[in-house]
Amino acid sequence: MNPLTKTCAVVELGLMPFAEAYELQQRAVAARKSGEISDVLLLCEHPHVVTLGRNGKHEHLRASDRLLAQMNIEFHETNRGGDITYHGPGQIVGYPILDLASHRRDVRWYVELLEEAMIRASDDFGVHARRVAGRHGLWVDTDSGEEEKLAAIGVHLSRWVTSHGFAYNVATDLRYFDLIVPCGISGKRATSLERLLNRAVRLDEVKPRLSARFGEVFDRQMKSMSCNDLEARLANQPPSGPSPSRVTPGPMAAGVMSGD
Predict the structure, then answer these.
(1) What are phi and psi of 209, to 5 degrees?
(2) pLDDT tens-digit profile of 92-105?
(3) Are 117 and 216 in contact (CB under 8 A)?
(4) How many CB atoms lie within 10 A of CB 245?
(5) Which residues are CB-contacts of 151 (< 8 A; sequence separation ≥ 6)?
(6) Distance CA 48, CA 198 (A)
(7) Please, is 128 exposed, middle or buried when counting C-beta atoms within 10 Å of its C-beta (0-12, 13-18, 19+)?
(8) Per-residue model confidence as pLDDT tens digits over 148-160
(9) Residue 237: strand, helix, or coil
(10) 257 SS3 class
(11) Torsion, CA 64, CA 49, CA 192, CA 136, rounded to 10
């Protein structure tokens, strides 16, 4: 391989609690800012959790604290852009830690490329997903003519280094989305790759396609890295941001992005 080829590490974290993944992101962001690591794409699943973005509205959470506790669902406020969303088993969550200074310092371009990577990965399974003007993420048209959301996006930038990212529904239990107004858009439902294909779909079928398409649109050669190797590189990195648990939101950020 040409040593000058630009690379991006892919780290599969498995099932990881949201707060633990958030803390890992923050250490990776600090390391990316200091140049100690290259671009990294973290892929994981989360146990049941509802997260609220910096410009999200609490009234978009339809469940009480008591119901969330009964259902063993965590709730976290975060520093990402976007509104409210659900993460859980059967969903691929991607956290790109990229230095956009080495790509393109353009937030809209970055979000569109995240969408494009997922659009192409969906095409690999014969699913036509598309953008909808004014609504970030991926949408599909149903036989009844309704639009349903296949994937969500919410990102944060700090000195042009990205964190947070995307959530792609593969085999997600869609009933959990009834606890929220997904992404703050009333009257719209979530869907999954499994539902669209009408067959069981393993996450291991989809992760390689998402990773490959991510590398394609961002012009990076994707290289697998173990979680242990990443931890070794981040051993001396403290978290670069606050805990996600009940974070007091800062100034509102428009749309899908927030930054500092």
Answers:
(1) -70, -45
(2) 999 999 999 999 99
(3) yes
(4) 13
(5) 118, 129, 137, 138, 166, 167, 168, 169
(6) 23
(7) exposed
(8) 999 999 999 999 9
(9) coil
(10) strand
(11) 90
What residue ranges do the domains of the chain occupy?
A: 7-244
Of 22-36, 108-122, 134-148, 214-228, the range with the lowest mean pLDDT is: 134-148
AA identity, residue 146? E
Whether 224 and 10 have beta carbons less than 8 Å apart is answered as: yes
Encoding tokens for residue 41? 């794409």
Token pair in block for residue 48: 């049941």
Going by C-alpha positions, the residue among 97, 80, 95, 88 that lies closest to residue 170 is: 88
DSSP per-residue string spanning 141-201: E-TTS-EEEEEEEEEEEETTEEEEEEEEESS--GGGGGGB-GGG-TT-EE--HHHHHTS--
Strand (E) or helix (H) holding 130: strand 130-132
Residue type (1 letter), 257: M
**Higher local confidence (pLDDT), 226 or 136:** 226
Q: Tell me the per-residue pLDDT of 23-77, one tens digit each, with 9 for 90 and over.
A: 999 999 999 999 999 999 999 999 999 999 888 888 989 999 999 999 999 999 9
d(CA 78, CA 242): 9
Q: Which CATH class is domain 7-244?
A: alpha beta
Active site residues: 183
- The identity of residue 140, as a single letter, is V
Q: What is the C-alpha radius of gyration for the chain, rounded to an integer number of angstroms?
A: 17
Sign of CA dihedral 112, 114, 120, 126: negative
Query: Tokens in use for 187?
Result: 């009257």
Helices (H) and strands (E) counted in the chain, each on its own, are 6, 13
Q: What is the DSSP letter of 48?
A: S
